[in-house]
Design goal:
With 593 residues, the protein is of the alpha+beta class. Helices cover 31% and strands 24% of the residues. The radius of gyration is 23 Å and the shape is globular.
């Protein structure tokens, strides 16, 4: 098999730098055949044998005993031959930088990235890849955009501690020309599932397309990453409702899709999310270790059986995970797709076991509580109430005809975010208020939801509806898309639901369906904006700063420049900036355009 870049060397994909803490690091690779993979950094090195999944070969190499707060270049060898960094690479040497207690924490985040070419045609159809523009700037390969302040520290080539991908890392249902060509070469695209993905082999190729561009490949080799899926990693509207799921399960192709999607997700994305202790306890990783060195053993059937089971019995495996960064921050990454309870009598975003787990993680005694969920917890007010209204209709608030209309509405308009799971929304909102009030340990400076999915970006500030005093600033920060912009019509519809009377009208509609008032009230502090972009976040003590960057073509489509879209900041006391009046905000946006 030839990689998308056309090389036939022993390294097919990667390396990806995954879980890194103060003293350990994990490096993920795909190789062309069974092999021994060695990662060397300074005086430390580690070696792992590859494991096979459906004829593909992977390794996760774990380095231990590293010095906290250190940063050193590393190399990757396959069967004794160096394969990374590439000898002709124009990029800086890849490094593994360990965390250090007390140092300000910086991370980047975003979601929704299609894998198309980076030429004029690709940029015209999908816009500039914000991840790649950021990678080129982080590698000091390009200057900031001409319109940007050249001395802006937010555009300086400073690598973060973590790159958090919040879903739709790959699109299994909306395939590109390159992916379709691969599919058509192996089967009839006039037969189900047509140009959508069918099996593990096609997923493996899709991941290669997503991660093989040289700039992005360098970035992923030198910045630790964490990931969580969203619907397009499997299929649009994945687990919207029980009706949706039954419709999918009645097809001839869904079983193959969900099994391949979850199997490939565990291999390519989830495995690297885990700490050494979490990996050691993981049931599939134990299978990998049990067959280490057995080049003839292919784990494909084992992983497929696992994927089939966890799809039908989601309570038997947890995709969610948590990262603690000393007392500076806790990052809780929530599975808001696979863990849903779709039974009408108990419909919830999270099944009971997952809900208990999240309840346990929502605690204070950190400076910042970061809750990552692919789906925004706080949508535009009008859209949130519309989702609550559609759920109540589908649940029978207006009788049988209303139920059918509600189900059709939520599937047609993608009304399946937290607002469409009111039981879970209200539970989590109350838990967050308790954290902010100091009832679950020392109140953090912020409780910040980090999300993607909706193909527009914004910051919202929230507060308890009943006026209850809280000590934390409650925020929703969204970064979407990295590369997959909305059409003009969808931008207009989103804007309509974001401003003016949309919120009050939506609330009237939801009240007509007897949806109770929520524990939180919120409004935009910044946005929305619709650029392809990537967000950055830095916390230091009680302060928090976020900014969004995008790529601009100046004179070369392949070498976009970095520009800043927006920023939001809390001061050293954790206080938000003075709120700008709606008229002043509108004037500023008009001037910006």
């Amino acid at each position: 098999m030839t990689s998308p870049e056309g090389t036939d060397g022993p390294l097919v994909l990667g390396p990806l730098l995954r879980y890194v803490d103060e003293t350990s690091a994990a490096v993920w690779v795909e190789t062309r055949g069974a092999a021994s993979v060695t990662v060397a950094r300074g005086g430390a090195s580690a070696t792992a044998r590859t494991f096979a999944v459906h004829g593909h070969h992977y390794a996760l190499v774990e380095l231990a005993g590293l010095e906290p707060g250190s940063s050193e270049p590393y190399t990757v060898e396959v069967d004794g031959a160096q394969v990374w960094p590439e000898p002709d690479s124009p990029f800086p040497a890849p490094v593994i930088a360990t965390l250090k207690r007390g140092r300000p924490l910086r991370l980047a985040f975003g979601s929704c990235r299609t894998s198309v070419t980076h030429d004029e045609a690709g940029n015209r159809m999908h816009g500039v890849d914000a991840l790649r523009a950021w990678a080129l700037r982080m590698a000091d390969q390009v200057e900031p955009a001409e319109s940007a302040d050249p001395d802006d520290p937010d555009l300086a080539p400073q690598l973060p501690d973590l790159l958090l991908f919040l879903g739709d890392q790959v699109y299994a249902d909306e395939t590109t020309d390159e992916m379709r060509a691969f599919i058509e070469a192996r089967r009839d695209i006039d037969q189900p599932p047509w140009t959508e993905l069918q099996d593990y082999e096609e997923y493996a190729h899709l991941y290669s397309l997503a991660w093989s561009d040289r700039a992005n490949r360098w970035l992923l080799s030198t910045v630790p990453s964490a990931m969580v899926f969203d619907d397009h990693d499997i299929r649009d509207d994945w687990n919207t409702s029980l009706d949706w799921r039954r419709e999918m399960e009645a097809t001839s192709w869904w079983h193959g899709r969900i099994v391949a999607g979850l199997s490939s997700y565990w291999v390519h994305q989830h495995l690297g999310n885990l700490s050494p202790a979490q990996r050691a306890a993981d049931e599939l990783w134990q299978q990998v270790l049990a067959h280490e060195g057995d080049a003839e053993h292919d784990l494909g059937p084992v992983i497929d059986a696992f994927a089939e089971r966890v799809d039908q019995e989601p309570q038997t495996y947890r995709w969610s995970y948590v990262r603690d960064f000393d007392t500076q921050a806790r990052l809780v990454v929530v599975d808001s797709r696979a863990a849903r309870d779709l039974r009408p009598e108990s419909r919830a975003m999270l099944d009971p076991d997952e809900a208990r787990w999240l309840d346990e993680q929502l605690r204070g005694d950190v400076d910042h509580l970061l809750v990552a969920t692919s789906l925004p917890f706080l949508l535009a007010r009008g859209l949130h109430h519309l989702e609550a209204f559609s759920e109540a209709l589908a649940q029978g608030a207006w009788g049988g005809p209303g139920s059918r209309a509600g189900e059709k509405l939520r599937q047609t308009v993608d009304l399946e975010h937290w607002g469409a799971f009111q039981k879970s929304f209200q539970e989590v909102a109350r838990q967050v208020i308790e954290v902010a009030a100091g009832e679950r340990g020392r109140a953090p400076s912020t409780v910040t939801f980090l999300s993607g999915d909706v193909h527009h970006s914004y910051v919202s500030e929230a507060w308890p509806t009943d006026g209850r005093a809280v000590q934390s600033t409650l925020l929703q920060a969204v970064c979407s898309p990295i590369r997959n912009p909305l059409s003009r019509n969808m931008r207009f519809a989103t804007a309509v639901l974001s401003y003016g009377v949309a919120g009050p009208v939506g609330r009237l509609a939801s009240r007509s369906a007897r949806v109770p008032d929520g524990p939180l009230t919120w409004r935009y502090a910044e946005g929305p904006w619709f650029d392809n972009n990537l967000a950055c976040l830095q916390v230091s003590g009680r302060s928090l700063r976020m900014w969004w960057v995008t790529g601009k073509v100046v004179d070369d489509d392949a070498r976009p420049r970095l520009a800043k879209v927006a920023a939001y900041e809390l001061d050293e006391q954790g206080n938000p900036p003075p709120r700008e009046g709606a008229v002043a905000k509108l004037r500023r946006r008009v001037r910006r355009r």
